[in-house]
Structure prediction request, 505 residues.
Amino acid sequence: MLVLMDELRRAGVDFVLMRHESNAGIAAAVHGKLRGQPGVVLTTLGPGAANLMLPLSSSCLDQEPLLAISAQIPDDFPASHTHQLLPLVDAYRPVSKYVAKITGRNVAEVVPRALAECMNRPFGAAYLTLSAREALKPASSGGGAALDGGTIPRREGNARQKAKALAGLLENARRPLVLLGLGINPANAKRIRQWVNDWDLPVAVTPKVKGIVDETAANFVGVVGGMAADNLMCQALESADLLIGVGLDPVEIDGTWHAELPIHWILEASNVGGIVPPDTQLVDHAQILDALLDDPPPATWRAPFRELQQKRRERLNDRSRASGTMWPGDIVQALAAALPPEAIVTTDVGSHKYLFGQFWPSRQPQTFWMSNGLSGMAYGLSAALGARLARPDVPVLAAVGDGGFSMNCQELETAKRVGAPFVTVVIEDGSYSLIKLSQEGKHLEPYRVDFGPIDTVKMAEACGVDGLRTTDPDELASATKRAVEHRRSLVIGIPVSYADYRRLF
Prediction:
């Protein structure tokens, strides 16, 4: 791996040294998806390679393109040499779209194929090993396949016929609901917005595609898939007389309604795992949307989910009076007022993920990032670093819990070192509150889910980053604005009462 790093240096390819391999993989995957190409993570053998399971699994289930390359013991070492030897190729095959060993003979074929497989929809991971001996060998001559964005999925459906059939269903519907999911290409955002807005269709999204439509628009119903206010969203789903799943992927849905309710699927690529719902033909989204927009709306729908939308808005403002804390809804609203629409928001996993997943008002595509298919902690801060490197002129906010922050806050030093500043809000409730709420829901005593206070401000300062703690929404907003304007990293600790989440969920 050292030889590869040196060759990258000679070629002028930047290498970002991070403090943990899992964090590096998550950052690379987010960076890659924002740039429209695979992110690349390099690790050593043994423990370094073993730490790739989290980012490879996340890439697999959250459709983020990632090429992971790790060192490995040379094949010609004695069979008795087992120091740091793991069956890496076998271990990562189930969560990777392509696995292989790089050799001097196959490098021109293997590397381009791995890159292409990452971009073959649904996006995912490829994993390669490289031994020190093979790294020193000259590559055999012979051209490998050029990276062309991956294989285009076979689409069997006729777009115009599909559009005509969908228009017929909508003509007879009184409470239709369009569900937009992870399988949508962000390049089609303009078409999707024009369709749902021109036809005034009620629309909901899953978390990984937040921002594909403007969530402040009157026809936006909410976020489905298990976020806060999920009971309201399930009511919307159950009361709809037509559900249209455009790019909808069940990998984001923690319930089973996707299999129990009738859904009219509009997919242009298979879902995660190569799954295509029965009797569903793949169809190009751009073509079917263009065909739909050629005609006027087949019917008029006058805000059929108005009451549910109002209840959703009210839930964010159902404030408690807990002293010494900030109401979670005020956190979202203060930060939304402080940041421009193009700002990128990442979250970690925990109760705050459900809060931001439902209520953050995303307005532009690819501006909201969370681990949802896998739902793995330590995603938020790493994703923010990858996003800031990919979009250096866009403000980035990482919303994390105090549990997740303590897992990888050391990467704040990485962000400072590589010139990728972002704002981190640490929502402090002194517990794994999501698990605690689940215990309560099962009528179990809260057990081993609380921890002692961790001084997030001192942890930030230890990494060379300014920090503050506040329970004042105005101070939160003004501090965030200043940090963004001055392009500086800032950590803001915000005490909350975990019991407040009950009112939101």
Notes: The domain at 159-308 is CATH 3.40.50.1220 (Rossmann fold).
